[in-house]
Amino acid sequence: MQAARDLMDSGRGFGSLSLREVTRSAGIVPTGFYRHFQGMDELGLALVEEVGETFRETIRQVRHHEFELGGVIDASVRIFLDAVAANRSQFLFLAREQYGGSQPVRQAIAALRERISADLVADLSLMPKQQHLDQAALTVIADLVVKTVFATLPELIDPPAATLPAHATPQAKMIEQLRFIFIGAKHWQGLGQGS
């Protein structure tokens, strides 16, 4: 798996990697690869599972901070950014392959996104500031948060240009987008009820 990540770190997408390249990079023969994986799609699914576990561990750390306005969102984004920096190759794979690559890998990433959203719905339903929201509204909020994070991944992988103003950095944009979501949620009254 590390050999595939190393090849992707050089700028290649997972879908462009061949089994021979991966095995050569890993220092094994193709038959050695087949002892672990049936093919490249199965390797891709293992990579999704790996980044999924990293993502879930990061979310466990973020759960120690309640999603609220102000400093807690900032702290949660910082935890997430630290995880991305510490596991760059995993998140690079996730950022690239969520919209490209093989169908089984895209489907596995979509399923990961849905599991993360479902976990977030459960967390949000326990928060006092979200008690006025029904299950459907919580599902929409969780979906918005998760899609915001996933959509921002490509910008988080590489450091922003030094000339980028502070308010335009990926970190600042993510914080502001999450604040907009939660401010809207705080005031949401439902469709047809003054919204």
From TrEMBL:
- Highest taxon, organism lineage: Bacteria
- Molecular function in Gene Ontology: DNA binding
Q: Where do the HTH tetR-type domain residues begin and end? A: 1-55
PROSITE patterns xref list: HTH_TETR_2 (PS50977)
Q: Annotated DNA-binding ranges?
A: 18-37
Against InterPro entries, the record matches this protein to:
DesT_TetR_C (IPR054129), Homeodomain-like_sf (IPR009057), HTH_TetR (IPR001647), HTH_transcr_repressor_FabR (IPR050692)
List the keywords (alphabetical): DNA-binding, Transcription, Transcription regulation
Positions of transmembrane segments: none
- The protein's name is TetR family transcriptional regulator
Organism annotation = Pseudomonas xionganensis
